[in-house]
Design a protein that fits this description.
The complex is a heterodimer of chains A (366) and B (201). Chain A is of the alpha/beta class. Chain A is built from 14 helices and 15 strands. The chains are: A alpha/beta (366), B alpha/beta (201).
Chain lengths: 366, 201
């Protein structure tokens, strides 16, 4: 699967732009603020119907204008599909696939699998557990709609249970049968989520480890472990144990909504002990594992978007990544950098054919 | 909106309290009423007042009723030992229109939803338990919405009813009759396959 072309109008710093892509590597070079990353973000729109960076559609319009268009032709074998996203201020966003309106965007998600590697990924290591749960949930939801539905239900039950705990404390009138009703519903959905997340981590871990070693060499020992309240104690017993604490604090203190992924470097927390380069390699390995995973479940190679990777990776790690590309591991790749020369040199030394685009001030020079 | 008469203004304000009726629609209704002769409008007004003052709720099933016991509960041809539990009056009407059910109903008056301040005490749950004991009910059919709140309520009721030794059933959910399989959403279809039933001719 690959994108043949991209047409954007009134999008971010582009008035209008038409590009024909190569099937392999596409490189966008130019100075800071030229608009390289905006092209990647337009591609992100085609896959997820939203921006990677900013969730407010209106801010994506050219100079605060009132509309934008992102359009592409996606090819798979002999089949071509046109995808068009139009945003109009006050009206909203519409998605057209082959000219047909798609009212439910969630139905389109997963049709163009995509993995993006960007400097902002560092939040996965630096920020709270919520970021990491969001990451797992997004990857699993891209191919498993039942998981997404169960997750939505779990959160609904959780909200109701928390409100109930609050009512018990503030208004009195404890009702054990009702609390148990919510417990049973939490246990049912929570166990499903736990099993799916554990299976996902177990599957992705060996792939991740081999990627990390390939990028960084065998000397560095890293790890990911899935930490959940449910791992040690069955959920139903856990809820019984914490009942009095829950009633006291007026919220559900244990459950899969508190899950976390622990990233380690030689058994120490990655966040505190990893250097910037190590953290970046860790994230790239994680995203590459995601790439492999999605390729397997989707049966096609996702688009790979590499934003600004030259800045954070040292020469050794970079050349390993390019060596992977040279072996034809990836499908279509989109990459941004400030210096065309170093990308060209890297491509040449790995015998990679690439198409170069030079961007300046929202315009394509050549 | 400015009105030439305070009488019109009053009437518009009252009518716009209806769900789905805004000021403009209310004004249209008021202008319609002004065009009618006085007896017709009086009759309309009186029927509304009578409706609110005289309506009763059946003391057995809590459905709306003209008498102390509703027509359905009072009908000797219907089986009082089978009770279908529903959320509100609209569900009774929907099931009655199928002509497939010959038992009695029990109207809960809502679904358990703590966020909206509805707990079992706000619903007719205790009276259902009483009724099961008093009338020696054999089967309880739970006909509640397939939402999380519906599931919670069904779950809670089954907890309360099971110790009484009555059989509990729930309406089946899955592919709509006359529906194309490919148009069923993945969740419904997945569940239909997981909860498939033995084939009967």
């Amino acid at each position: 699967m690959h994108l043949e072309s991209l047409y954007i109008q009134q999008f971010k710093n582009y008035e209008s732009l038409q590009i024909q892509f190569a099937q392999g590597l596409n490189c966008f070079t130019g100075r800071n603020g030229a608009g390289k990353t905006n092209i990647l973000d337009a591609i992100h729109y085609l896959s997820f119907t939203k921006s990677y960076f900013n969730s407010v559609d209106q801010f994506q319009a050219f100079l605060g204008g009132h509309y934008f268009v992102v359009e592409s032709v996606c090819a798979q074998g002999n089949i071509q599909e046109s995808i068009r996203i139009v945003f109009q201020k006050g009206i909203g966003k519409t998605l057209l696939v082959n000219g047909n309106d798609v009212p439910k965007f969630s139905a389109h998600i997963g049709a163009i699998p995509l993995v993006m590697i960007a400097p902002g990924d560092i939040a996965l290591i630096q920020e709270t557990a919520e970021e990491r749960r969001k990451f797992i949930d997004q990857v699993i939801s891209q191919f498993d709609k039942v998981y997404l539905n169960t997750l939505i239900n779990y959160n609904k039950v959780l909200d109701q249970r928390n409100k109930l705990l609050k009512d018990f404390k503030l208004q009195g009138g404890f009702n054990r049968a009702l609390l148990q009703t919510y417990n049973e519903q939490l246990v049912q959905t929570g166990n499903y989520i736990f099993t799916k997340r554990a299976a996902f981590i177990e599957k992705i871990l060996p792939v991740f480890l081999s990627h990390y070693q390939w990028i960084s060499g065998p000397d560095e020992r890293v790890g990911i472990s899935y930490e959940s309240d449910l791992a040690k104690t069955p959920f139903d017993r856990l809820l019984d144990q914490t009942e009095s604490a829950d009633l006291d604090l007026m919220r559900t203190t244990r459950g899969v909504h508190r899950d976390d992924l622990i990233f380690t470097l030689a058994h120490n927390p990655m966040k505190k002990f990893g250097s910037q380069g190590q953290q970046k390699s860790f994230l790239i390995a994680l995203k590459l594992a995601q790439f492999d995973f999605l390729s397997e479940v989707k049966g096609k190679k996702p688009l790979l978007l590499l934003d600004d990777i030259f800045e954070k990776l040292d020469q050794v790690r970079l050349s390993r990544l390019f060596a992977m590309m040279g072996e034809g591991k990836f499908g279509q790749v989109f990459l941004t950098d400030t210096q065309q020369e170093r990308v060209k040199a890297m491509c040449a030394s790995n015998a990679i054919e690439a198409k170069f685009f030079e961007i300046e001030n929202g315009q394509l020079l050549r | 909106m400015n009105f030439p008469s305070s009488l019109i203004e009053d009437a518009v304000n009252e009518l716009s309290k209806f769900p789905g009726i805004g000021k403009k629609s209310a004004l249209r209704m008021v202008l319609f009423l002004l065009k009618q002769d006085i007896p017709m409008v009086t009759k309309m007004g009186e029927s509304i007042i009578k409706l609110r003052k005289k309506i009763q709720f059946c003391e057995r099933c809590h459905n709306v009723s003209d008498n102390r016991v509703c027509n359905i509960c009072a009908n000797p041809k219907r089986d009082p030992q089978i009770v279908c539990v529903v959320e509100d009056l609209r569900d009774v009407m929907a099931i009655e229109n199928t002509h497939q059910f010959n038992g009695n109903y029990h109207v809960l008056g809502g679904l358990i939803n703590p966020i909206q301040g509805i707990g079992p005490n706000q619903l007719k749950v205790d009276s259902l338990i009483e009724r099961i004991k008093l009338f020696e009910i054999k089967e309880v059919i739970l006909a509640l919405s397939a939402t999380m709140e519906g599931d919670t309520t069904a779950f809670y009721l089954s907890k309360k009813i099971t110790p009484l030794g009555v059989s509990i059933s729930a309406i089946s959910r899955g592919i709509a009759v006359g529906g194309e399989l490919e148009y069923a959403d993945e969740i419904t279809l997945g569940r239909s396959i997981a909860n498939r039933i033995p084939y009967r001719n």
